[in-house]
Amino acid sequence: MNIVWLQSGGCSGCTMSLLCAEQPDLLSLSQLQGWRWRYFPSLSPQLPKGLPGLLAAVEQGEWSLDVLCLEGAVMTGPDESGAYHIAAGMDASMRDVLLRFIEQARYVVAVGSCAAFGGITAAGPNPGEAVGLQYAHHLSGGLLSATFRSRAGLPVINIAGCPVHPDWVTETLLLLQQDALDEADLDPLNRPRFYADKLVHHGCSRNEYYEYKASAEHLGELGCMMEHLGCMGTLAHADCNQRSWNGQGCCTDAGYPCIDCTAPTFGTRRHAYQETPKLGGIPVGLPTDMPKAWFIALSSLAKAATPERLKKNATAERPQLPPPVKEIKL
């Protein structure tokens, strides 16, 4: 499988994450599966003919481009000329070079939220006119139209995340190699369902605190971070708490709230990530598919029934009270 990995408006964080893939690592997996990285900025030696030679080889049919990966948002400015990012060694914008590669690619993959939706690169005033490949934040149609389909008949596959989990990338590539990924395997935002049909909330080590609404008040405390510290794990589509990062854990395990980095609106919020917006004392970001009235009723009952152990531990940096050992009568 021939793969080309290009970069545009981003920080290379998804590359750094992918290079930390484990069990197996990226190089071992590539050798095992026969992946040919025709170009990957962090792995490839200098190309003899540079990017122009790479593009010419594809367009002249010297080899087929199976997967085109883009990391980073597409810089379309100024005035949709793409001149803010000129492709190395070419008298052309990366925007135009991308379009030529896309015409040849069997599959097109957006790696990271910047490439998928614009992400942080497109946040705020966005002077670079950055967009995602097929989305501009939550709106269909970025560089490519909403109706775009690659040679394999699929839209852009959005492996959203900031950064992506390395396994999300490698599993997607494995599925594409087997022609085992079709449109039904993508969610409404074209994210692979194998990770996007999960919520960060699933498997969170703080779920007992969440159930009783025993909330942390400051970073570093043990309680649930949804009520006061901006955690969006009940809304974020990802399997971070079920698929460890680097074999260790994830944001919430490390004591930091989930910031929903796989969402198309990531980077556009009008409040600090460590704050929970509230209306009438009720968090605005309620759990997905839970009616507000139910949440209020359940929260009241849960807080009334919160064990003393959870109340005390929630606002502490280390457990103050252990779970009691219950005597079992035989």
Q: Give, in order, the helices and strands.
A: EHHEHEEHEHEEEEHHHEEHH
Number of helices: 10
- Quaternary structure classification: single chain
Instruction: Tell me, rounded to a whole number, the average pLDDT.
Output: 92
CATH class type of the largest domain: Alpha Beta
- Percent strand equals 5-15%
Helical content (DSSP H or I, runs of 4+): 10-25%
Gross morphology is elongated
**CATH architecture of the largest domain, please?**
3-Layer(aba) Sandwich
How would you write the strand order of the largest sheet? 2-1-3-5-9
Quantity of strands, as a count? 11
Tell me the radius of gyration.
22 Å
Q: Give the CA-CA distance, first to last residue.
A: 62 Å
Give the count of structural domains: 2
- Spell out the CATH superfamily of the largest domain: NADH:ubiquinone oxidoreductase-like, 20kDa subunit
| CATH overall fold name of the largest domain | Rossmann fold
Helix/strand/pairing category: alpha/beta
Largest sheet: 5 strands, parallel
- Unreliable residue stretches: none
Question: How would you characterize this protein structure?
Answer:
The chain is an alpha/beta fold and 330 residues long. The longest helix has 13 residues, at 292-304. It has 2 domains: 2-196, Rossmann fold; 199-318, Cytochrome-c3 Hydrogenase, Chain A, domain 2, CATH 4.10.480.10. The chain contains 10 helices and 11 strands. The strands form 4 sheets. A 5-stranded parallel β-sheet has the order 2-1-3-5-9, sandwiched between helices.
